Amino acid sequence: MFIGHFAPPLIVAARPKAAGLGTLFVAAQLVDIGFAALLVPGIEAMRIEPGITAMNPMDLHHMPYTHSLLGTAIWAGVFGALVWAATKRREAAIGAALVVVSHWFIDLLVHIPDLTLFGAPPKLGLGLWNHPLVAMPLEALLIGGAFLYYMRRTQAPTGDRRLWMLAALLATVQAVDWFGPKEPVYSLAIPATMLAAYAVLAGTAAWAGTNRRPLARLAT
Q1: 20 to 30 A from 99, CA-CA: which of 10, 35, 66, 123?
Q2: Are 18 and 37 in contact (CB under 8 A)?
Q3: pTM of the entire structure?
Q4: pLDDT band at 220 (very low <50, low <70, confident <90, very high)
Q5: At what angle do helices 21-28 and 189-209 cross, to 10 degrees?
Protein backbone atom coordinates (compact mmCIF):
# COMPACT_ATOMS: atom_id res chain seq x y z
CA MET A 1 0.00 0.00 0.00
CA PHE A 2 1.35 3.42 -0.96
CA ILE A 3 -1.14 6.17 -1.79
CA GLY A 4 -3.81 4.23 0.13
CA HIS A 5 -2.06 5.50 3.25
CA PHE A 6 -3.25 9.00 2.34
CA ALA A 7 -6.93 8.08 2.67
CA PRO A 8 -7.03 8.61 6.47
CA PRO A 9 -5.48 12.12 6.32
CA LEU A 10 -7.99 13.21 3.69
CA ILE A 11 -10.85 12.02 5.91
CA VAL A 12 -9.44 13.57 9.08
CA ALA A 13 -8.59 16.86 7.32
CA ALA A 14 -12.29 17.44 6.61
CA ARG A 15 -12.86 17.97 10.35
CA PRO A 16 -13.19 21.64 11.40
CA LYS A 17 -10.35 21.59 13.97
CA ALA A 18 -8.04 19.13 12.20
CA ALA A 19 -4.38 19.72 11.49
CA GLY A 20 -3.50 20.88 7.99
CA LEU A 21 -3.55 18.46 5.08
CA GLY A 22 0.23 18.68 4.65
CA THR A 23 0.80 17.84 8.31
CA LEU A 24 -1.58 14.89 8.04
CA PHE A 25 0.20 13.63 4.90
CA VAL A 26 3.41 13.58 6.95
CA ALA A 27 1.56 11.70 9.69
CA ALA A 28 0.33 9.11 7.20
CA GLN A 29 3.85 8.15 6.18
CA LEU A 30 5.70 9.08 9.36
CA VAL A 31 6.79 5.52 10.16
CA ASP A 32 8.01 5.04 6.58
CA ILE A 33 9.89 8.34 6.83
CA GLY A 34 11.43 7.01 10.04
CA PHE A 35 12.18 3.69 8.35
CA ALA A 36 13.96 5.39 5.46
CA ALA A 37 15.99 7.52 7.88
CA LEU A 38 16.94 4.47 9.99
CA LEU A 39 18.00 2.52 6.90
CA VAL A 40 20.84 4.97 6.27
CA PRO A 41 22.83 4.14 9.46
CA GLY A 42 21.68 0.49 9.37
CA ILE A 43 19.51 0.65 12.51
CA GLU A 44 16.72 -0.95 10.50
CA ALA A 45 17.31 -3.05 7.41
CA MET A 46 15.81 -4.40 4.20
CA ARG A 47 17.01 -6.24 1.13
CA ILE A 48 15.78 -6.80 -2.40
CA GLU A 49 14.47 -10.30 -3.08
CA PRO A 50 12.82 -10.46 -6.52
CA GLY A 51 9.69 -12.57 -6.35
CA ILE A 52 9.25 -12.35 -2.59
CA THR A 53 5.78 -10.98 -3.39
CA ALA A 54 3.95 -10.51 -6.68
CA MET A 55 3.98 -6.72 -6.37
CA ASN A 56 6.96 -5.74 -4.24
CA PRO A 57 10.52 -7.14 -4.16
CA MET A 58 11.39 -5.60 -0.78
CA ASP A 59 12.24 -8.00 2.02
CA LEU A 60 11.52 -5.81 5.05
CA HIS A 61 13.15 -8.15 7.50
CA HIS A 62 14.21 -5.78 10.30
CA MET A 63 12.10 -2.75 11.25
CA PRO A 64 11.22 -3.12 14.95
CA TYR A 65 11.29 0.59 15.77
CA THR A 66 8.97 1.80 13.00
CA HIS A 67 6.74 -1.09 11.95
CA SER A 68 5.90 -2.72 15.24
CA LEU A 69 2.53 -1.71 16.65
CA LEU A 70 4.28 -0.47 19.80
CA GLY A 71 6.81 1.51 17.79
CA THR A 72 4.06 3.02 15.65
CA ALA A 73 2.15 4.03 18.79
CA ILE A 74 5.25 5.78 20.14
CA TRP A 75 5.76 7.66 16.86
CA ALA A 76 2.06 8.60 16.99
CA GLY A 77 2.29 9.89 20.55
CA VAL A 78 5.32 12.04 19.80
CA PHE A 79 3.81 13.43 16.61
CA GLY A 80 0.49 14.12 18.32
CA ALA A 81 2.33 15.99 21.09
CA LEU A 82 4.16 18.11 18.49
CA VAL A 83 0.89 18.94 16.73
CA TRP A 84 -0.70 19.90 20.06
CA ALA A 85 2.27 22.12 20.90
CA ALA A 86 2.00 23.83 17.51
CA THR A 87 -1.78 24.23 17.37
CA LYS A 88 -3.05 23.97 20.97
CA ARG A 89 -5.97 22.02 19.52
CA ARG A 90 -6.69 18.64 21.10
CA GLU A 91 -8.71 17.44 18.11
CA ALA A 92 -5.84 18.25 15.76
CA ALA A 93 -3.37 16.34 17.93
CA ILE A 94 -5.60 13.29 18.35
CA GLY A 95 -6.47 13.20 14.65
CA ALA A 96 -2.81 13.39 13.65
CA ALA A 97 -1.86 10.62 16.08
CA LEU A 98 -4.64 8.38 14.76
CA VAL A 99 -3.44 8.93 11.20
CA VAL A 100 0.05 7.78 12.22
CA VAL A 101 -1.38 4.62 13.80
CA SER A 102 -3.52 3.94 10.71
CA HIS A 103 -0.34 3.23 8.77
CA TRP A 104 0.33 -0.01 10.67
CA PHE A 105 -3.18 -1.36 10.16
CA ILE A 106 -3.19 -0.54 6.44
CA ASP A 107 0.24 -2.19 6.11
CA LEU A 108 -1.17 -5.25 7.87
CA LEU A 109 -3.48 -5.81 4.90
CA VAL A 110 -0.79 -5.87 2.21
CA HIS A 111 2.51 -6.88 3.81
CA ILE A 112 3.61 -10.46 4.02
CA PRO A 113 4.45 -11.36 7.65
CA ASP A 114 7.09 -8.75 8.50
CA LEU A 115 5.16 -6.54 10.94
CA THR A 116 5.33 -7.14 14.68
CA LEU A 117 3.44 -6.10 17.78
CA PHE A 118 6.46 -5.28 19.97
CA GLY A 119 9.49 -5.59 17.67
CA ALA A 120 9.90 -9.37 18.00
CA PRO A 121 8.05 -12.41 16.58
CA PRO A 122 5.38 -13.36 15.83
CA LYS A 123 5.45 -11.53 12.52
CA LEU A 124 2.17 -10.48 10.98
CA GLY A 125 0.80 -9.58 7.55
CA LEU A 126 -2.15 -10.67 5.43
CA GLY A 127 -0.13 -10.59 2.20
CA LEU A 128 -2.32 -8.78 -0.32
CA TRP A 129 0.88 -7.85 -2.17
CA ASN A 130 0.64 -11.40 -3.51
CA HIS A 131 -2.83 -10.66 -4.89
CA PRO A 132 -2.57 -7.59 -7.15
CA LEU A 133 -6.10 -8.02 -8.52
CA VAL A 134 -7.30 -7.39 -4.96
CA ALA A 135 -4.64 -4.97 -3.70
CA MET A 136 -4.70 -2.56 -6.64
CA PRO A 137 -8.48 -1.95 -6.77
CA LEU A 138 -8.55 -1.73 -2.98
CA GLU A 139 -5.92 1.00 -3.01
CA ALA A 140 -7.74 2.90 -5.75
CA LEU A 141 -11.06 2.65 -3.88
CA LEU A 142 -9.51 3.83 -0.61
CA ILE A 143 -7.86 6.92 -2.04
CA GLY A 144 -10.65 7.70 -4.50
CA GLY A 145 -13.34 7.50 -1.83
CA ALA A 146 -11.29 9.62 0.56
CA PHE A 147 -10.73 12.28 -2.10
CA LEU A 148 -14.46 12.50 -2.81
CA TYR A 149 -15.19 12.71 0.93
CA TYR A 150 -12.67 15.53 1.44
CA MET A 151 -13.75 17.42 -1.67
CA ARG A 152 -17.44 17.31 -0.78
CA ARG A 153 -16.89 18.42 2.81
CA THR A 154 -14.45 21.26 2.21
CA GLN A 155 -14.32 24.23 -0.10
CA ALA A 156 -11.79 26.70 -1.41
CA PRO A 157 -12.40 30.18 -2.85
CA THR A 158 -10.34 29.24 -5.89
CA GLY A 159 -12.15 25.96 -6.53
CA ASP A 160 -10.79 22.43 -6.67
CA ARG A 161 -7.92 22.87 -9.15
CA ARG A 162 -5.19 22.38 -6.55
CA LEU A 163 -6.87 19.27 -5.21
CA TRP A 164 -7.10 17.76 -8.68
CA MET A 165 -3.40 18.46 -9.20
CA LEU A 166 -2.66 16.62 -5.95
CA ALA A 167 -4.80 13.71 -7.17
CA ALA A 168 -2.92 13.63 -10.48
CA LEU A 169 0.43 13.60 -8.67
CA LEU A 170 -0.67 10.75 -6.42
CA ALA A 171 -1.91 8.75 -9.41
CA THR A 172 1.38 9.30 -11.23
CA VAL A 173 3.50 8.27 -8.24
CA GLN A 174 1.35 5.18 -7.71
CA ALA A 175 1.63 4.20 -11.38
CA VAL A 176 5.41 4.44 -11.15
CA ASP A 177 5.36 2.35 -7.97
CA TRP A 178 3.20 -0.33 -9.58
CA PHE A 179 4.58 -0.46 -13.10
CA GLY A 180 7.98 1.26 -13.04
CA PRO A 181 11.34 -0.51 -12.92
CA LYS A 182 12.43 -1.95 -9.58
CA GLU A 183 15.85 -1.56 -8.00
CA PRO A 184 17.77 -4.83 -8.51
CA VAL A 185 19.69 -4.53 -5.22
CA TYR A 186 19.42 -2.43 -2.10
CA SER A 187 21.33 0.85 -2.09
CA LEU A 188 21.02 4.19 -0.33
CA ALA A 189 19.15 5.40 -3.41
CA ILE A 190 16.08 3.60 -2.07
CA PRO A 191 15.70 5.52 1.22
CA ALA A 192 16.74 8.73 -0.54
CA THR A 193 13.99 8.25 -3.13
CA MET A 194 11.47 7.45 -0.41
CA LEU A 195 12.28 10.60 1.54
CA ALA A 196 12.19 12.77 -1.59
CA ALA A 197 8.81 11.34 -2.64
CA TYR A 198 7.28 11.89 0.80
CA ALA A 199 8.56 15.46 0.89
CA VAL A 200 7.09 16.29 -2.52
CA LEU A 201 3.74 14.68 -1.67
CA ALA A 202 3.46 16.39 1.72
CA GLY A 203 4.45 19.74 0.24
CA THR A 204 1.89 19.41 -2.54
CA ALA A 205 -0.78 18.38 -0.02
CA ALA A 206 0.00 21.43 2.11
CA TRP A 207 -0.33 23.65 -0.97
CA ALA A 208 -3.58 21.95 -2.04
CA GLY A 209 -5.16 22.21 1.40
CA THR A 210 -3.91 25.60 2.51
CA ASN A 211 -7.03 27.55 1.48
CA ARG A 212 -9.65 24.81 1.94
CA ARG A 213 -12.12 25.04 4.81
CA PRO A 214 -14.90 22.73 6.01
CA LEU A 215 -18.30 23.62 4.61
CA ALA A 216 -20.19 25.92 6.96
CA ARG A 217 -23.03 23.45 7.54
CA LEU A 218 -20.51 20.81 8.68
CA ALA A 219 -18.44 23.15 10.84
CA THR A 220 -21.36 24.18 13.05
Answers
A1: 123
A2: no
A3: 0.95
A4: very low
A5: 150
